[in-house]
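Document type: protein sequence-to-structure record

Subject area: structural biology

Format: plain text, a pair of labelled lines:
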Amino acid sequence: MISEIQERIDARGLVCPMPTLRLGQAIRRVAVGEVVELCSDDPGAENNMAAWERNTGHELLWHGIEGGVHTFHFRRLH
């Protein structure tokens, strides 16, 4: 888990594509090198975030699951 998170997104209750759209908006608001946290209870979150990472080129730093909620930390790379 990363302690220096610049922006947090609570996407619980939202389904694809909303969590990925919110993540894309947030990643554009932070500086290169900074970290965005996304929490999602979408059953497809793990696959969706892996695809988002591949397609955007940003870095997944951490992924955890607790109580059905996925938490992801992404670093903006460009």
